[in-house]
């Protein structure tokens, strides 16, 4: 059983290169490889493009330089609905133009609209907008249509994909991951299956989930919770293959809805955690700015005080230099020697002299 599961997983793997969508296969008759021109034997691993049927060895599929003829067909280049996702993307555009156009408009004008994606628009307007997007997606003016019409057209585009975003090949893997008991194991299992998606499907799915998270965060205004969005989008992005019994597909609806809700809720938690980190960083930045401004003000006050003291000192030292020859410098202490009685001869001391010396001593 493990060998069969491994073999089935290898055949379900899809690789994209130069517009080709290569799927692993095995030929029952010898076939020539279109890249190296050698034979692909019966037991060899081979790859074939799902669009143009380009056949080659598995080791040659990523080496081929020939572009897919079906993807670059000019008759199909303008179509947007019912077309393989790989035809609508390129190396420069990882997400289809119609997805970016519709999601951006709904994000700007319908984020707070009550019942967005739950309420349907006018049937005639939906057909008109769909034809316009199929003819020339870039020139369509979405301002001419109601927001519910635009949301309905976007859901139609998802439903019309030949292979849904979460792919028929991985449908059973998603259901198996949802059957795990513990929530952590379920989350780990679902994300491990998501990692197996092709680059085009993964990029478009990430863009859609981020859009749904933004809508679910405004649940108070638009009345669309993560569960409500999962009920609407699960049949669009996680459809069961046509080979499965219809009764079985009805029984799987609860699992597919829970799977989509799980992805949206997990991304919401990550989004809220990032917003919390950003708010804490902004608070720390504002606090640091306040402290820096206080430090700058205190530094300016100190510099002003130092300047004032230096000006005052210069003016005082300038006045002291007028009689520099008679007075000592301001830095050295002034010592005044008082005349003592021993310095005066006894014969010259008179009563007047004694009186004068007493007065001068008192003055000094």
From TrEMBL:
InterPro entries: C1-like_sf (IPR046349), Myo9 (IPR046987), PKC_DAG/PE (IPR002219), Rho_GTPase_activation_prot (IPR008936), RhoGAP_dom (IPR000198), RhoGAP_myosin_IX (IPR046990). PROSITE patterns: RHOGAP, ZF_DAG_PE_1, ZF_DAG_PE_2. It comes from the Eukaryota. One of its GO terms (molecular function) is microfilament motor activity. It is found in: Cytoplasm; Membrane. Keywords: Cytoplasm, Membrane, Metal-binding, Zinc. The keyword Metal-binding applies. Pfam families: C1_1, RhoGAP. One of its GO terms (biological process) is intracellular signal transduction. Residues 19-68 form the Phorbol-ester/DAG-type domain. The keyword Lyase does not apply. Its main location: cytoplasm. Residues 83-271 form the Rho-GAP domain. One of its GO terms (cellular component) is cytoplasm. PANTHER family: UNCONVENTIONAL MYOSIN-IXA, UNCONVENTIONAL MYOSIN-IXB-LIKE PROTEIN. This is Myosin-IXa-like protein.
